[in-house]
Specification:
It is built from 14 helices and 31 strands. The strands form nine sheets. The protein has a six-stranded mixed β-sheet. A six-stranded mixed β-sheet has the order 6-7-9-10-12-11. The chain is globular, with a radius of gyration of 24 Å.
């Protein structure tokens, strides 16, 4: 018989076939399109064969729609899991972004689902699996299939304590080792569904990142008795065999459906294939999202609300140029952060190359598109040495070939990480890309004085960076002296409400040079 394992991952609240850049835009993405692919496959599956469908995490956060639900219409938030249930998922996995609005909101959103959440490595205060089920056994035509649910264990490094109070996060590999012997006795086929990515090269199995525990899919693929591996988190498009195990990772926003096909003979897997099915080739299943139509209309109206003006504009036409020389949009974000916290030292990033910046007339749509993450702010007390080390970490972003500066492949492969390059306001500094790594900061002053290692400084950053996210180990929760528990998009809206007409101001001076020559 045939066993087909379908998966979506990192939907991030994109239910409709739109990226929200313009009102009611049709885009080649969204859960409604993925649902059509899933429905078609199920319809063409023989009755003797088996199909299991997995929602692999990061479902309830990440789009203007989910932001609107959280901030303005929480009573309707369970409609997200109602829609997901209509897809026909057999299992759901928690993603790290499920915790962005706190565990109690997540539990509220997931209250209307009809499928189990599988969660083997997130434990409650009694040491039991959060949500109660580490795995599920499915039976069809005499075949028993186990799905073990796992989530990246790095969540505690990203989320404020009040979002994850009472929870502990165990290594996905350790949890799998604990459960696999039992599952091999209970089932013929064992599938791991993991909201996490690969820490090693898919071909040669060599490490591609530090072993932090954020991504453990490579190690999971090496465990004996894993018949299929569904992954996510990194937003990569993967359909291959890793250490002999068929595996998929279907990108994000519903652009693809992952498919693993297993041939079963005498309760054993004899053949396997892994593919990705693009959803752009099918029409969206509009009846699926009808229950949330009124919320979508309200979201679109809210997005088109004008909230203020800029003197001029802060549109980003060239992301590389903006990171290399600075940009009014980044000046503005640092301006908002410093205003909200009363500090005069700040840093922020141009998170993705899709960030478009702001028009002269600014709407909430502009803000939501340009600031896509649900960040809050924290003020840290750091040393001058911490500041210099942080800028040196940022300087790793640049690669110099002797004549041209490029973005280092460490920031583009295997995962795009533009969000880990910060630009600082409130200081003057110079990065020389011709210098060795960790020795590239050639000039650093604060209030016209050279920064000394022993100086004590207050800096505002987003919460992700404040607790060391992105390998910024010089920052940590222990150094936080003040927190602003308000989403950055709301702080931006408040800033416009109090100023109405805003002029982005460059605070400090920043340049990237090679051999002392400006680039």
């Amino acid at each position: 018989m045939k066993l087909t394992i379908l998966s979506t991952s990192d939907i991030h609240g994109y239910l409709y076939p739109t990226d929200f850049r313009t009102s009611h835009q049709q885009s080649p993405l969204g859960l409604a399109r993925a649902a059509t692919v899933i429905t078609n496959i199920k319809a063409h599956t023989a009755p003797t064969d088996m199909v299991l469908t997995i929602e692999n995490g990061d479902f309830i956060q990440g789009s203007p729609l989910t932001y609107y639900l959280n901030h303005f219409e929480q009573t309707s938030a369970p409609l997200l899991s109602h829609v997901a249930s209509s897809v026909g998922y057999d299992a759901g996995i928690l993603g790290n972004h499920e915790f962005n609005y706190g565990r109690h909101y997540m539990e509220h959103v997931l209250s209307d689902r009809t499928y189990p959440i599988l969660c083997a490595n997130i434990l409650d205060q009694d040491g039991q699996p959060y949500f109660g089920k580490p795995y599920q056994i499915y039976t069809h035509n005499g075949l028993k299939v186990a799905i073990l649910g796992l989530t990246t264990a790095y969540i505690s490094h990203w989320e404020p304590l009040d979002h994850i109070q009472g929870l502990s996060f165990v290594s996905a590999v350790q949890a799998a080792k604990n459960y696999l012997p039992k599952l091999h006795k209970l089932a013929d086929v064992v599938v791991i569904a993991y909201h996490g990515g690969f820490e090693c090269d898919l071909e040669n199995d060599r490490p591609t990142e530090l072993a932090t525990g954020e991504n453990e899919a490579s190690a999971l693929s090496r465990l004996p008795g894993v018949d299929a591996l569904v992954t996510g988190h990194q937003h990569r498009t993967i359909a291959t065999h890793v250490n002999g195990v068929p595996t998929t990772q279907p990108g994000y926003r519903g652009a693809n459906v992952g498919r693993i096909d297993l041939t079963i003979e005498q309760s054993k897997v004899t053949h396997s294939e892994a593919t990705l099915i693009p959803t752009a080739i099918v029409a969206p299943q509009l009846n699926l999202i009808q229950p949330i139509k009124n919320v979508e209309k309200s979201t679109e109206r809210w997005l088109d609300t004008n909230i203020g003006q800029l003197t001029g504009e802060a549109k980003i036409k060239d992301p590389l140029e903006a990171r290399l020389h600075g940009h009014p949009y980044l000046d503005f974000i640092n301006q908002v952060q410093m205003d909200a916290t009363g500090t005069d030292l700040s840093c922020t990033a141009l998170f993705t190359n899709e960030v478009s910046g702001l028009n002269h007339d600014v709407s909430m749509r502009d803000v939501e598109i340009s600031y896509p993450y649900p960040n809050t702010l924290a003020v840290l007390e750091i040393t001058g040495a911490d500041l210099r080390t942080a800028i040196e970490q940022c300087a790793h972003y640049w690669q110099w070939d002797g004549s041209t500066v490029h973005v280092s492949t460490d920031y583009t492969d295997p995962k795009v990480q533009h969000y880990n390059y910060d630009l600082f306001a409130g200081i003057d500094y110079t990065i020389d890309v011709n210098k060795p790594l960790d020795a590239r900061v050639t000039h650093l002053t604060y209030h016209d004085h050279t920064v000394k290692n022993t100086d004590r400084l207050h800096i505002v950053l987003n919460q992700y960076r404040a607790i060391g996210g992105g390998e910024f180990h010089m920052f940590s929760a222990e150094k936080i002296i003040k927190e602003i528990p308000v989403d950055m998009t709301e702080l931006i809206a408040r800033y416009f409400a109090s100023h109405r007409i805003v002029t982005p101001e460059q605070n400090g001076h920043y340049q990237v040079v090679a051999n002392g020559n400006p680039l």
